[in-house]
Amino acid sequence: MEDREIKDLEAAVEQIWQIAQDFGLDPYPTNFEIVPATVMYEVGSYALPGRYSHWTFGKAYHRMKTMYDFGLSKIYEVVINTNPSYGFLLETNSPIQNKMVIAHVLGHVDFFKNNTYFSKTNRRMVESVSTHAQRMMEYEFKHGRKTVERFLDSVLAIEEHIDPYFFIKREVSNEEQKRRAEHRPREGRYDDLWLLDKAERELRDPSAAADKRDDDSKPRELLPEKDLLYYVMKNSPSLAPWQRDAIAMVHEEMEYFVPQMQTKIMNEGWASIWHARIMRALDLTDNDHIEFANLHSGVVSPQKGQLNPYYLGYKIYEDIERRWNEPSIEERDKFNRLGKEGRDKIFEVREIENDVSFLRNYLTEELCEELDLFVFELIEEEEWTITEKRWEKVRDQLVANMTNFGFPYLQVEDGDYNNNRELYLKHRYEGTELEMRYARKALEHVHMLWGRPVHLETVIDEESTVLHYNGDEHGED
Amino acid sequence: MSIQRNDWSLQRKGIIDQERHKDRVKEAIRKNLGSIVSNEAIILSDGKRTVKVPIRALDEYKFRFNYQKAKHVGQGDGKTRVGDVIGRESRGTGGGTGAGQAGQEAGTDYYEAEVNIDEIAALIFEDLQLPYLQEKAKKAVQSRKTQFNEIRRTGVIANLDKRRMILENIRRNAREGNPRFGDIKKEDLRFKTWEEVMRYESNAVVIAMIDVSGSMGEFKKYIARSFYFWMVRFLRTKYDNVDIVFISHHTEAKEVSEEQFFTQGESGGTVVSSAYQLALDIIKQRYKPSDWNIYPFHFSDGDNYYSDNEEAVRLADELISTCNLFGYGEIGEEGSSSYRRSSGALLSIFSDRLHHKDRFVGVRIDDKEDVYPALKQFFGTRGVETPA
After folding, report:
1. pTM, rounded to two decimals
2. Domain ends where: B155, B181, B200?
3. Which residue in B35, B128, B187, B289 is a FRET match for B375, CA 20 to 30 A apart?
4. What pLDDT is attached to residue B287?
């Protein structure tokens, strides 16, 4: 890219930024960076630049890069939710592509800044992940690359099983710790001796031991616990300190990604609606306008069979805006809508909803019909067949599939199962079975982290079943 | 708000982790050699250098829903109705790729690794060798190998060692008080030079015999050929001077070209002794046992004419007495287990009646996965006799 083009682009950024603000968008300052495809795909496959090393990232990178090299798919843009934010532009983008991407990125950044599910997000995450990467590298150096890699394999197997509202727990536990710290006697070099003394006293007097059980020997977390990753980190009987630290790092990174997983449809829809409006507000030549129209329809067109999150989100926002701008008589009377409130309403929605509530509250019968949404399932293991078109059922299915960002909901029921420090997990079955081969393999990973027998209660063929794994063999009853 | 353009040429994280992924692929291949050795894609690769083989060990296992048993939401063109079929599941493949356009997340159930046949060969051959190889009196053939093992200040420009040159350059500049790279002078140049290493090897001939009678069905021929496919590759990679004689037989035996050997289909009955007789004749004419290490191998389903068994055993004994090792592989029906093992098949007859069993290796193959163990059994490490 020539200097002149960069100058043009800088001017475009200023202009787009101004238009965005006039529309009421409120993004963080954003730095744009023009990068070659290799870097684009690298950032795309790691989701954040500078993360720790793992072969699964290499696998994703290789796949994306290959797709690009063969011309099968192309990422135009990657955006990083930090303050200031970063937008990456592919160096082969045309000027119009770049303008649209810049507008789209500002839409995302506005969403990151203002949607409430991001309110606890670490905005200096790039720095955090690079210190994680540093630490992970030290662990590799100390314990061997293979050891760390194998361990991460197991951690990543359960990385999605965290609590999206973990920050509440952290705030509480910080306070709790402060309170305890005030009561704890000063720690000294000989404290372990007092512990021996205490153990002996308990031997002589079992009732003291019983007290202790209730006191601090057993994990005192409230069960069930949704945050499997955290629970394992905290309570696994077998992990070394570096391993707990590695889990903590993965946990922290997942906390950062969870809001993005919770708002995919909303976020893409929001960015799409604003890139469209901003581009229309720019003075484009006819040719540029045609190029833009092509690009835009490529992004927000329905794909037959599949559900395009960009398109779905885009349509829902437009529909909300219309309904609040021109409420029906019934809506005026019943809900006291005055009209001309569309813009305010969509800004409110982008602030307070996530995908689940967004769809639940704003996917209407008319939209379902217009978008021709349906439920499909596999009939007799052979034909994928449309089985439902009633809009409430379709909406509910969509909401159900979005719940827990599309992952099975697991929870820790007991960390001392059989009074033997075994881990008992329960899959909260809601009508869809687990893929069993994967579940067994994933259970092996959990066992590797827990170090003692693990159990998973789930439902197979409509019957409650418990899977066991003790390190040698799988069981089931 | 800014636009930046940095130099990313040193950014290599993705590439480094891609290497890690490749390591994992390699490791998985090593663990799955048994099934990879007999993978159709490789045996039928037809000269291609890389092939794709499924490797399950590289899945990222998570707790996830069974895509096939779940309900999904899709979008139509405005005219869909309940009961419309929007996609079909490919049957029997377990994972499959899901329903046409509909099954977006089903994905493949396994990772298909692109593997280089030479790399696999290197792994397979790692600990294979010609057993009981002896240094024969005459005609020990030399083979010449080139090894780059020295660095000099002068040489052919094509052999310039750039890395060392850069180091020298920086070093010299540093001596002159300006540690940087640039201003290359003649004294910075470093060249790799080579040495020719002579290797002494014994002569060896492998006589590959295959049964192409009517009872050798697709599966059996496939097994025999995959064995020989690797055997031939193995011999050519590891030994510079190994002759291979190809013999195919039904009721009669004939010497064939390598191509015929691997492609020909025949029919008719089975007279094993015909192949052994031909092998003995060829040895007599061309490969004097005092000068050659001789390795006959024979693959058959063991369904020999009853009247020929006596003769087959006699000739096999004769073969063994002239050669270093005689390998016999008997191929069963696909997926069959041991039900034929006790019948009148050749393998049991050989193990009962042969006189020289110490240089006889008999292997039973019922499954594709048995090919690799068979290779290991035939070419595994055995006492290499030190020359007198």
Report:
1. 0.73
2. B200
3. B289
4. 87
